[in-house]
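Show me a record, fold above all:
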Amino acid sequence: MFKKSKRKIVVSILSVLILLLFGTFCVIYLASYADMTKENRLLLKQYADSYVLFQETDSGDENGAEGTGIKDIGWETEKNPDGDEGKRNDRINPPIGSPMLKLSTFYSVAISKDGEVLKTDTADISTFEESELTEMAQEILNDGKSDGIKNNLLYKTEDKGEYILVAFLDNTVMLKNVDTLIGYTLIFGGVALIVMFFLARYLAEKIVSPLEESYQKQKQFISDAGHELKTPTAIINANADLLSREIGENRWLANIQYENERMSTLIAQLLDLAKTESSSPRKETTDLSRLVYGETLPFESVAYENGLVLNSDIEENIKVNGNAGQLKQLTSILLDNAVRHGKKGNEVRLTLKKEKNHAVLSVVNDGEEIPPEKRKHLFERFYKTDDARPDDYRHYGLGLAIAKAVAVAHKGTINVRCYDGKIEFSVKIPSQK
């Protein structure tokens, strides 16, 4: 029980941590990606706005012949180092005040309105060939989009009047930065989860230990008190028997004997519960089919006396690793509970079958539906769904608590469900092949 509580605490702490880390990671990633994308789009816009495809002519030859026109590309025209304006200048200067433009890699394709490629700029980098850039530019123009991302390149189209510019910004550096951010975040998150796992285990141990210690003391007290009470109740019973032989029938003596028998029954049940919960029973391969069949036979006459019919359907050769004594007690508790609460004239049905890797013992009787708010308390100590009956002096609400303890000791589960005027208790225990 306490191990399960510790696991729940650890899982709860780690679940909260994972949610916080995941949320923080998403916020950081999305904010960083959005910020870098926004900055790159702004740089690409500056590049596109500054781009000029111009016509230059040289100053002619020495004989005064006219120069020939040359189409070229640049952001601005400027004089060459010799001071001659008419000469071609291939150096491109970014606009003043935009240092990031110098650190960024841009590509461009200028296409005339009739579809002719006027100029392709690969930035003197072999990453993309002119044909690749041209093909991408034409696809972008065919799609009709003004901006977006294609092949890790941010792109933007701009109408320059006589031609259309498709400008690209290499987005590889940004994506690598994002990948690096993700990698470091995952590493940090993994280390944090490992550290928090051990911290959660430590905290769970600290939280549960006082409760476990108190619970163990309570069980020890019940066991010790039960053993101490067995002797006086046995003495009282012996003396009452001797006294009844001497004085004959006596109402006051009968009351003493009645209450003493009740006390003896309660002590025995408390000791059974304490023993089942506090110790690990010796287990061995047990033929559960034969065991259940043997426990069912005596209850046929008990059911008959209570106006009921006990029917059983027991699958043969179902074996489990368990304690025969405790499994017999479990079967008897379920049958006794069904016979006591079953409606006269109806049947009590017991079934034992194998489902996958489990043996399933089920006992069904007709009866009033147990409200859901009461079902969750059925397996608690001293809990009863109705007031004690005059003839119910041997039952104190410990039977189902003992049954649950036996099921848990065998790594199984016990459940109750109500349907169609029937009440079913079922126990599932791991079986052997």
Remarks:
- The longest helix spans residues 172-247.
- The two ends are 28 Å apart (CA to CA).
- The CA atoms of residues 372 and 418 lie 9 Å apart.
- Residues 55-97 have pLDDT under 50 and may be disordered.
